[in-house]
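Residues and backbone
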Amino acid sequence: MESYLVIAGQSIGVYLFIVIAIRIFGKTELTQLSVTDLVFILLISNAVQNAMVETAGSPTNSFIGGLIAASSLFLINNLLQRLTFKSKKLRSLLQGEPVMLVHEGRIIKKHLEKVMLTEDELLAAAREHGVESIDKINLAVLEADGNISILSSNFHHQTRKKRPHKVIHKQ
């Protein structure tokens, strides 16, 4: 029984380490999936690997050991999802906060440096949104999921000139 608790503990330890590592090093690389979703997918596929199921001195590469590793990952993932849903502070810590990159056509260079994004990468994202230059961007934000949102001045509200109605007279 003690060896199975060690397996569960090792699995949870690996999970937390990878969440922290991806959060620190991979923010701009993530899209669509949250950090915890990505880690969960990566680790479930490896739940029966030796790094998580070996106990000191006696490897437990059994079916039961793999199930315990996978179960502990399911449990910790579910727990973190519930906690991040309820706690804005934890959600911010694990998933990050949006970072403003451009405001009213001006690049915020210290924010680009903070998230390790080059001006060329920012410009590429702008082009993907149909914006040809930075000065046309009202707001660009690196979202917590790694996507870049761009609001540009390309979409001005224009009022239409009213055309006079043609009046057809019947004779």
Notes: The longest strand covers residues 137-142.
